[in-house]
């Protein structure tokens, strides 16, 4: 049963901010142990974008009710009746056939693939074209409780939203262990929006995407605007890039790329000790990954 009152509050706010700025991604991977919470959050956003009430999403207007009851023409849900079963290539083909259709009522159409870790290999490969920038305004949500079972090529085409985020105290401990002082952490403040930008850069590095050089300059420009916190944010960038690369070492498919990236990051540590500036270090990393 969909309950948009039971959602990931932080994750819902991230999606709301993106919607309000007209910056929604065409594809999201909602990853975490609580798939119900992730699905509810996806429906929360859909209701938010279609709600006709005053307090959006109210869950009670005609549009919200049809969405939550599964009767809205712009929403397609793909699921498995049993978690032990799989999502087949035929189910993905049905979605691909829907790509040519324009929204019947709203601004977007929405595809939700629940238990995305159950995609067969042919289905996952068939999903790749769907996850490219679609011609029609479609937003696709992949919901998975085991991100390690999602093909790297599929992950690279989505914006990942984690539903197993560490608590603030854990985050603080992690940053303290990696060289930031408590004063610097306080100055750093909330980093959710910046983390999304930085994660995109990391994914471009993973994929040896030439856009990473452009993103590097955008990151540097964003940090420069922060003035008082700019020095801390520069440190934070290297800490988080290393963290994600170390996490990817645990995944066999990603291990070679992660190991290579960590080698480049170690080289940058040496460059920083020689007072190479932040933007030059980012440029080096982006260019190094394109070789």
TrEMBL record:
Transmembrane segments: none
Coiled-coil intervals, chain numbering: none
Superkingdom assignment: Bacteria
InterPro entries: DNA_Rep/Repair_Clamp_Loader (IPR050238), P-loop_NTPase (IPR027417)
GO biological process terms, semicolon-separated: DNA-templated DNA replication
Protein name as annotated: DNA polymerase III subunit delta
């Amino acid at each position: 049963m969909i309950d948009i009152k039971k959602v990931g509050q932080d994750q819902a706010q991230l999606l709301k901010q993106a919607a309000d700025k007209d910056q929604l991604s065409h594809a999201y991977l909602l990853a975490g142990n609580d798939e119900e919470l992730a699905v509810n959050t996806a429906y929360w956003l859909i209701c938010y974008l279609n709600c006709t009430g005053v307090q959006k999403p109210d869950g009670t207007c005609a549009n919200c009710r049809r969405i939550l009851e599964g009767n809205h023409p712009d929403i397609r849900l793909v699921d498995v009746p049993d978690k032990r079963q799989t999502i087949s290539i035929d189910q993905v083909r049905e979605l691909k056939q829907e790509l040519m259709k324009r929204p019947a009522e709203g601004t977007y159409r929405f595809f939700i693939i629940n238990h995305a870790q159950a995609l067969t290999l042919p289905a996952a490969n068939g999903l790749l074209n769907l996850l490219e920038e679609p011609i029609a305004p479609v937003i696709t949500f992949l919901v998975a409780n085991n991100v390690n079972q999602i093909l790297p090529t599929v992950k690279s085409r989505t914006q990942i939203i984690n539903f197993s985020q560490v608590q603030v105290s854990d985050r603080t401990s992690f940053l303290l262990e990696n060289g930031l002082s408590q004063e610097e952490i306080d100055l750093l403040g909330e980093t959710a929006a910046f983390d999304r930008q930085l994660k995109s850069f990391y994914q471009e590095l993973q994929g040896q995407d030439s856009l990473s050089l452009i993103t590097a300059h955008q990151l540097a420009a964003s940090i420069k605007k922060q003035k008082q916190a700019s020095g801390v944010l520069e440190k934070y960038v290297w800490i988080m890039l290393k963290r994600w690369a170390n996490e990817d070492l645990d995944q066999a498919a990603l291990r070679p790329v992660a190991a290579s990236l960590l080698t480049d990051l170690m080289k940058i540590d040496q460059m920083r000790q020689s007072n190479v500036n932040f933007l030059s270090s980012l440029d080096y990393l982006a260019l190094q990954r394109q070789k």
